[in-house]
Amino acid sequence: MMRQVTGACATVLILVVALYHPSVAAAHGAQSGEDDPCLRKIGESLVHFSAYQPQYELRGQYCTEIPKEGDTFLVVDLVDPELRHEQVGMRVVKGNGSSEADAQVVIDVRPSYHPDGVLRGEVSLEEGLYTVIVSAEKRNLMHRPQYLLRVHMVDYQKIVLSVAGPLVGVLLLVWLLYKLARSKWVRNWWAVLRA
Of the given ranges (12-21, 76-85, 145-154), which has the lowest mean pLDDT? Predict the structure, then answer.
Protein backbone atom coordinates (compact mmCIF):
# COMPACT_ATOMS: atom_id res chain seq x y z
CA MET A 1 0.00 0.00 0.00
CA MET A 2 2.82 2.39 0.85
CA ARG A 3 4.40 1.76 -2.56
CA GLN A 4 1.17 2.77 -4.29
CA VAL A 5 0.93 5.99 -2.27
CA THR A 6 4.57 6.84 -3.03
CA GLY A 7 4.04 6.13 -6.76
CA ALA A 8 0.90 8.27 -6.84
CA CYS A 9 2.65 11.16 -5.07
CA ALA A 10 5.59 10.96 -7.48
CA THR A 11 3.22 11.00 -10.46
CA VAL A 12 1.39 14.05 -9.11
CA LEU A 13 4.68 15.83 -8.46
CA ILE A 14 5.92 15.18 -12.01
CA LEU A 15 2.58 16.35 -13.42
CA VAL A 16 2.68 19.57 -11.38
CA VAL A 17 6.25 20.34 -12.48
CA ALA A 18 5.44 19.64 -16.15
CA LEU A 19 2.31 21.80 -16.08
CA TYR A 20 3.93 24.60 -14.11
CA HIS A 21 6.76 25.11 -16.63
CA PRO A 22 5.19 24.86 -20.12
CA SER A 23 7.56 27.56 -21.41
CA VAL A 24 10.50 25.16 -21.24
CA ALA A 25 8.97 23.07 -24.01
CA ALA A 26 7.95 26.14 -26.03
CA ALA A 27 11.23 28.07 -25.94
CA HIS A 28 12.34 29.41 -29.31
CA GLY A 29 16.09 29.00 -28.91
CA ALA A 30 16.26 25.20 -29.00
CA GLN A 31 13.93 24.72 -31.95
CA SER A 32 15.04 22.58 -34.83
CA GLY A 33 14.12 23.28 -38.46
CA GLU A 34 10.56 22.05 -38.88
CA ASP A 35 9.58 22.77 -35.26
CA ASP A 36 10.63 26.42 -35.48
CA PRO A 37 7.52 28.69 -35.50
CA CYS A 38 9.52 31.44 -37.24
CA LEU A 39 10.35 29.31 -40.28
CA ARG A 40 8.06 29.65 -43.32
CA LYS A 41 8.06 28.55 -46.95
CA ILE A 42 7.97 30.66 -50.10
CA GLY A 43 7.20 27.99 -52.64
CA GLU A 44 9.85 25.36 -51.95
CA SER A 45 12.30 27.79 -50.32
CA LEU A 46 12.54 28.62 -46.63
CA VAL A 47 12.72 31.97 -44.82
CA HIS A 48 13.23 32.67 -41.12
CA PHE A 49 11.88 35.78 -39.36
CA SER A 50 13.32 37.43 -36.25
CA ALA A 51 12.64 40.69 -34.43
CA TYR A 52 15.08 42.43 -32.11
CA GLN A 53 14.79 45.28 -29.60
CA PRO A 54 18.39 45.81 -28.42
CA GLN A 55 17.46 48.92 -26.43
CA TYR A 56 15.58 46.64 -23.98
CA GLU A 57 17.37 43.31 -24.25
CA LEU A 58 20.61 43.01 -26.16
CA ARG A 59 20.33 39.31 -27.02
CA GLY A 60 16.53 39.01 -27.13
CA GLN A 61 15.20 37.45 -30.32
CA TYR A 62 11.45 37.37 -30.93
CA CYS A 63 9.18 35.88 -33.53
CA THR A 64 5.53 36.63 -32.88
CA GLU A 65 5.44 37.95 -29.30
CA ILE A 66 7.29 41.26 -29.01
CA PRO A 67 7.35 42.30 -25.34
CA LYS A 68 7.58 46.09 -25.61
CA GLU A 69 6.70 49.00 -27.84
CA GLY A 70 9.43 50.94 -29.61
CA ASP A 71 12.13 50.67 -32.23
CA THR A 72 12.28 47.15 -33.59
CA PHE A 73 14.69 45.58 -36.06
CA LEU A 74 13.00 43.09 -38.37
CA VAL A 75 15.21 40.49 -40.05
CA VAL A 76 14.26 37.88 -42.63
CA ASP A 77 16.94 35.28 -43.26
CA LEU A 78 16.74 33.80 -46.74
CA VAL A 79 17.61 30.25 -45.75
CA ASP A 80 17.70 28.82 -49.28
CA PRO A 81 20.43 30.25 -51.54
CA GLU A 82 18.01 30.38 -54.53
CA LEU A 83 16.18 33.29 -52.89
CA ARG A 84 19.38 35.35 -52.89
CA HIS A 85 19.13 35.56 -56.67
CA GLU A 86 15.53 36.79 -56.61
CA GLN A 87 13.97 40.05 -55.58
CA VAL A 88 12.49 39.64 -52.11
CA GLY A 89 10.58 42.27 -50.15
CA MET A 90 8.78 42.71 -46.84
CA ARG A 91 5.70 44.69 -45.83
CA VAL A 92 4.45 45.30 -42.30
CA VAL A 93 0.80 46.29 -41.93
CA LYS A 94 -1.17 47.20 -38.82
CA GLY A 95 -3.78 44.61 -37.92
CA ASN A 96 -4.12 40.92 -38.61
CA GLY A 97 -3.82 41.25 -42.39
CA SER A 98 -7.36 40.07 -43.12
CA SER A 99 -8.17 42.98 -45.43
CA GLU A 100 -5.01 44.00 -47.23
CA ALA A 101 -6.73 46.77 -49.20
CA ASP A 102 -7.67 48.69 -46.02
CA ALA A 103 -4.48 47.88 -44.11
CA GLN A 104 -2.27 50.68 -42.84
CA VAL A 105 1.25 50.03 -44.11
CA VAL A 106 3.82 50.62 -41.36
CA ILE A 107 6.92 49.81 -43.41
CA ASP A 108 7.41 48.62 -46.96
CA VAL A 109 10.80 47.19 -47.91
CA ARG A 110 10.64 47.09 -51.69
CA PRO A 111 11.71 43.85 -53.38
CA SER A 112 15.41 43.81 -54.17
CA TYR A 113 18.31 41.37 -54.34
CA HIS A 114 19.95 40.28 -51.08
CA PRO A 115 23.23 38.51 -51.89
CA ASP A 116 24.08 38.20 -48.19
CA GLY A 117 20.79 36.36 -47.60
CA VAL A 118 19.42 38.88 -45.10
CA LEU A 119 16.45 41.22 -45.60
CA ARG A 120 16.40 44.00 -42.97
CA GLY A 121 13.99 46.67 -41.84
CA GLU A 122 13.63 48.99 -38.86
CA VAL A 123 10.30 50.22 -37.58
CA SER A 124 8.81 51.79 -34.47
CA LEU A 125 5.95 49.58 -33.28
CA GLU A 126 3.15 50.63 -30.97
CA GLU A 127 1.00 48.27 -28.92
CA GLY A 128 -1.23 46.08 -31.07
CA LEU A 129 -1.34 43.49 -33.82
CA TYR A 130 0.81 43.65 -36.95
CA THR A 131 1.28 41.37 -39.92
CA VAL A 132 4.63 40.87 -41.62
CA ILE A 133 4.31 39.72 -45.23
CA VAL A 134 7.36 38.42 -47.11
CA SER A 135 7.10 38.25 -50.89
CA ALA A 136 9.39 37.06 -53.65
CA GLU A 137 9.07 38.33 -57.22
CA LYS A 138 9.00 34.90 -58.89
CA ARG A 139 6.99 33.03 -56.27
CA ASN A 140 3.25 32.47 -56.07
CA LEU A 141 1.59 35.46 -54.38
CA MET A 142 -1.01 33.20 -52.76
CA HIS A 143 1.69 31.45 -50.72
CA ARG A 144 3.48 34.43 -49.19
CA PRO A 145 4.72 33.78 -45.67
CA GLN A 146 3.01 35.87 -43.02
CA TYR A 147 3.86 36.43 -39.38
CA LEU A 148 1.33 37.83 -36.93
CA LEU A 149 3.12 40.03 -34.38
CA ARG A 150 1.64 40.81 -30.97
CA VAL A 151 3.38 43.90 -29.62
CA HIS A 152 3.20 44.63 -25.87
CA MET A 153 -0.07 42.71 -25.52
CA VAL A 154 -1.20 40.47 -22.70
CA ASP A 155 -1.40 36.85 -23.82
CA TYR A 156 -4.29 35.54 -21.76
CA GLN A 157 -3.69 31.98 -22.93
CA LYS A 158 -0.24 31.98 -21.30
CA ILE A 159 -1.66 33.45 -18.10
CA VAL A 160 -4.38 30.80 -17.93
CA LEU A 161 -1.87 28.03 -18.60
CA SER A 162 0.52 29.33 -15.94
CA VAL A 163 -2.29 29.38 -13.35
CA ALA A 164 -4.09 26.21 -14.49
CA GLY A 165 -1.05 23.96 -14.14
CA PRO A 166 -0.42 24.55 -10.44
CA LEU A 167 -4.17 24.63 -9.74
CA VAL A 168 -4.69 21.22 -11.34
CA GLY A 169 -1.69 19.90 -9.41
CA VAL A 170 -3.04 21.18 -6.10
CA LEU A 171 -6.50 19.75 -6.83
CA LEU A 172 -5.00 16.36 -7.68
CA LEU A 173 -2.95 16.43 -4.48
CA VAL A 174 -6.01 17.33 -2.39
CA TRP A 175 -8.01 14.56 -4.06
CA LEU A 176 -5.21 12.06 -3.45
CA LEU A 177 -4.94 13.07 0.22
CA TYR A 178 -8.72 12.82 0.59
CA LYS A 179 -8.74 9.31 -0.89
CA LEU A 180 -5.80 8.35 1.29
CA ALA A 181 -7.51 9.69 4.44
CA ARG A 182 -10.71 7.78 3.59
CA SER A 183 -8.88 4.50 2.94
CA LYS A 184 -9.34 1.55 5.24
CA TRP A 185 -5.59 1.26 5.75
CA VAL A 186 -5.29 4.82 7.18
CA ARG A 187 -8.38 4.37 9.38
CA ASN A 188 -6.94 1.14 10.83
CA TRP A 189 -3.56 2.81 11.34
CA TRP A 190 -5.21 5.80 13.08
CA ALA A 191 -7.23 3.47 15.32
CA VAL A 192 -4.04 1.66 16.35
CA LEU A 193 -2.34 4.98 17.18
CA ARG A 194 -5.27 6.18 19.28
CA ALA A 195 -5.45 2.91 21.21
Answer: 12-21
